[in-house]
UniProtKB/TrEMBL annotation:
Protein name listed in UniProt: N-acetyltransferase domain-containing protein
Stored Gene3D superfamilies: 3.40.630.30
Source species of the chain: Hymenobacter frigidus
SUPFAM superfamilies: Acyl-CoA N-acyltransferases (Nat) (SSF55729)
The organism's place on the tree of life at top rank: Bacteria
Lineage: Bacteria, Pseudomonadati, Bacteroidota, Cytophagia, Cytophagales
PANTHER family in alphabetical order: ACETYLTRANSFERASE, GNAT FAMILY, PUTATIVE (AFU_ORTHOLOGUE AFUA_3G00765)-RELATED-RELATED
Listed InterPro entries: Acyl_CoA_acyltransferase (IPR016181), GNAT_dom (IPR000182), N-acetyltransferase (IPR051531)
Pfam family, one: Acetyltransf_3
Stored CDD domains: NAT_SF
Chain ranges of the N-acetyltransferase domain: 40-183
Length: 184
């Protein structure tokens, strides 16, 4: 089973659950309470729209416990002296890896929080998650060709451009070294 929480220096990454997504979609006044975090003014960010939320909820409902962690993740900026814990982005995998061990990631940071390296940290956390499963051998991502910031996030996390994808998207790939579990 994939871990459902991970930490980076400034972020807590929390796997989406049916309860969180149901609140986000149908009871938005309860969503920040369940999440335990403040929301940015422009939530939801980028491509993480209502259709994405509904898709993730469908996948979690259909896949049960084995689907948890293979879809949406919330990126929460840890509380500090300047701000409370705040939801700053979303990302995740497009599902479990295929038979070859390839999984696709996506990510988006709320406009209020861009330009602070949080997307880079979010992607680093997703890479850690992929490594921790022991199932992923390669990650892919497909940012828009006209989004150099998203491309830089991937490059900073060891991805390489390998060509074009559908539409105006590029294809990035990164090898994943699964975490080794100590025997003892």
């Amino acid at each position: 089973m994939i871990p459902l929480i991970t930490h980076t220096p400034r972020l807590l990454l929390l796997a989406a659950s049916r309860a969180l997504l149901t609140a986000e979609l149908h009871k938005p006044q309860y969503f920040p309470i369940l999440l335990g975090a403040a929301l940015p003014t422009d939530w939801p960010p980028g491509e993480y729209d209502r259709a994405a939320m509904e898709y993730i909820l469908e996948q979690l409902t259909a896949g049960g416990r084995t689907a948890a962690g293979w879809h949406g993740w919330y990126a929460l900026r840890k509380a500090d002296d300047t701000a409370p814990r705040t939801l700053v982005g979303a990302g995740g995998f497009m599902g479990p890896p295929d038979a070859a061990g390839t999984a696709e990631i996506n990510y988006s940071i709320a406009a209020d929080w861009r330009g602070q390296g949080l997307a880079t940290e979010l992607v680093a956390g997703l890479v850690q998650q992929a490594e921790a499963t022991g199932m992923v051998r390669q990650l892919t991502a497909h940012p828009d060709a006209d989004n150099p910031a998203a491309q830089q996030v991937l490059l900073r996390n060891g991805f390489q451009t390998v060509g074009s994808a559908a539409g105006s998207r590029l294809r990035f790939e990164r090898a994943v070294v699964p975490a080794v579990t100590a025997v003892g």
